[in-house]
Amino acid sequence: MDAIFSGIALILFLLLLFKLFSSSPTSVNNKKTKGVPPPSPPALPFIGHLHLFKKPFHHTLSKLSSRYGPVLLLHFGSRRVLVVTSHTLAVECFTKNDLAFASRPRLASGRFLTYGYTTIGFSPYGPHWRSLRRIVAHELFSSARLQSLADSRAAELKCLLRQLFQERSDKHVFTRVELRPKLFELILNVLMRSIANKRCGEEKSGRFLDIVRGTFTFSGTSNLRDFLPILRMFDFIGTRKRLTWLESEWESNLQGLIDEQRMLDRDESKKTMIGVMLSLQEEDPEQYTDRFIKALFLSLIMAGTDTSTATLEWAMSLLLNHPETLVKAREELDEQIEHGRLIEENDLPKLPYLQGIINEAMRLHPATPLLLPHESIQDCELNGFHVEQGTILLVNAYAMQRDPEMWGPNANEFKPERYQEISTDLSKMMMPFGMGRRRCPGEALAAKLMGLALGAFIQCFEWERVGKEMVDMEEGLGMSMPKAKPLAALCKPRPTMIDVLSAL
């Protein structure tokens, strides 16, 4: 008992010291010389607004913004956090103030899960990030590179369709299928074929799914340890142990991929993304170290798998709850693709309704509802308010993309037809891939893959809900927003596609 009281006394003493130093006369005088700060709700001593950490966090922020306005300043412990809920002001953040908000915060969990903040997603703005961005844009995700890998994407899709088809002994009876692991395996294998020209089986992809989901759970701005450093002294729920395990899993898997590529013939290795990086390593070994390469591909696997899987799962859930939309999408596919042929990437521009379904899934259920956190590297002005250097920026894409002023009175409804009525560039209304310098460089690949996968599912199979109840649309937790309850559905091959599926 004495030890407990001593611990409590020590914590209170340390918090008092922190309060005294953070409220020094110098800091007070500095505040007097700066502009008007954004509005802020009442805060508690020491923890600021951390008591508002109610999940799902984007819903809490939406409620606060409806009360205090589209620009809101919060304090998470000692860190300032700017919350933006207006699309117009978000665009201003990533255009007029794009350089000011070009960096990422160094959150404590990132030290474990981003190779010391060196991944393209979480690297601070500077020469290292610019080098990563240049390589991704010109070497890994260029139009020529994406086109050269089109056959491998098609092959992986056919592999999944063949698996779904052959698992059914009676092709005329609906069978239950768990969609999340199958979608994740598809996307992971597309990336693995591109990265290292290899596939992951069901067991391996399931392990990767655990690693990726675990990493997203501890990333972003939902970890209290990132804002109350004193909590890092304790590990009541095993957070540090879990972070260490995730770090070890990423290290062993990524280093294994690099070592395998080193053993290949040089001409064969150059066909893969890791092979390209190893060629650059030979030219400049000090710049392109193994650590550099592992950080790069950790970002690609993380960003590519979880977000695309989540979007496709949300899209299928929406279709199951709106079967009339599923019928319209199938009619479009049948009209645009000749009988006896599987959908191809070249067909996607001819399928606006299919794209509308994906757009609605990304609008209503963005994979990263608060985008990735940004950080200001200099003071700036936003909507007449002064924003200090070192402020974390959270853009509530979830709230913006359901704003009735922009999307009309039916903003919360699933309506793919709305995009046929919109003449404005969608990038001016939605930002599921971010915006500005830190926009996701894999957007083109994700668009191709999601369109191809969803189109093939609709073209090749008939789908129904499991039972009469509507699909549960509760949101999961973490930096990304998967469904809380993984989607299960009933499917059977369409009679008109049995010959096509049999030939895969």
From TrEMBL:
Q: Which cofactor does it need?
A: heme
Q: Which residues form the signal peptide?
A: 1-23
Alphabetical GO CC annotations of the entry are: membrane
Q: Which PROSITE patterns match?
A: CYTOCHROME_P450
Keyword Membrane assigned? yes
Name any one GO molecular function.
Answer: heme binding
Positions bound to heme:
C440
Q: Please name the InterPro entries in this protein's record.
A: Cyt_P450, Cyt_P450_CS, Cyt_P450_E_grp-I, Cyt_P450_sf, Plant_Cytochrome_P450_Monoox
Q: How does it sit in the membrane?
A: Single-pass membrane protein
Keywords, in A-Z order:
Heme, Iron, Membrane, Metal-binding, Monooxygenase, Oxidoreductase, Signal, Transmembrane, Transmembrane helix
Predominant subcellular localization, coarse grouping: membrane
Subcellular location per UniProt equals: Membrane
Its family remark reads: Belongs to the cytochrome P450 family.
Q: What is this protein called?
A: Cytochrome P450
Taxonomic path: Eukaryota, Viridiplantae, Streptophyta, Embryophyta, Tracheophyta
